[in-house]
Amino acid sequence: MDHFEENLAPFNQLSGKLLRKIRESKGYTQKHVSQGIMRQSTYSKIEREETEPSAPKLFAILDRLEISVEEFLFIQGDYRHSKKGNIIYEFVSQKYNVPEELEKLKSEVTDYLHYNEDPIVQDIQSIYEGLIIFGKTHDIRLARKHVQPVWDRLESFDEWHLTEIYLVNNILYFFNADSAIHISDRAITQLERYEGFRASNSLRFNFQFNLVYLLIDNGQFDKALVALESLILYAKQLKKHDMLAVCYARKGVSMLKSGNTDGNLWIKRGTNMLKVIEEDTLKKHLEEEVRAFLKHPSLR
What we know:
Blueprint: H1 3-6, H2 16-25, H3 30-34, H4 40-47, H5 55-64, H6 69-76, H7 83-93, H8 99-115, H9 119-137, H10 140-155, H11 162-171, H12 177-191, H13 198-217, H14 221-238, H15 241-257, H16 263-276, H17 280-295
Helix pairs in contact: 7-8, 8-9, 9-10, 9-11, 10-11, 11-12, 11-13, 12-13, 13-14, 13-15, 14-15, 15-16, 15-17, 16-17
């Protein structure tokens, strides 16, 4: 099997046997699973792998079996993601932009692209390159050169789905505050269609979280402080203690740059919180961010 064949979409090799195993483990009959979706005889053929359902029918079957498409594909892959699936999973699961970790992820992407053409994975590679440069230099303008082609491609889309919104969220850093606000408004409007979909709430938080960085970087401290108040409340609700700590530190930076020396207390509160929850790597990078902000020429 060559690399291209190995990475074909998992639905191309739908496992009827797996459907049967899941159904039987729940004690469901074929009649129960197929009712209102298709004839029982047709469903029986699917389990025997004599035919395959259309995508809408398959989604309905999985819903009846009370299992998500993502989980079904994961189980079908022997409890592993496909190579492309794993690349996307690692990309959307990244919490911190640590250059060393990003280099490892970029290496996986480069290997995949050596054997496969894929615009989404190509975008991820470009974003990793931009984030790595940004993490090492804190030079947004230099990093932007790598992600500009990603934006040029996405900007032309009439609609963004979750994959595109994740991509957009990761390049938000590289635009000035006014452009980023416009982009965020468009993304959040698109996310309204996903109301009730679990990932959409975190994405909304992440957009605001990234916007705060840009507002501080552009010297818009009053706007950053307003945004941080709602972010702090939201981080507490979501129990995102690591992100709450970062919000505290960014609040401290914004206060200091506004002439309020109490900002030092908020910075200390943020770094101490990361120490307590043993997020040592994030603590190190947050301290570097604070130092970069406080001596940033454009913020003086």
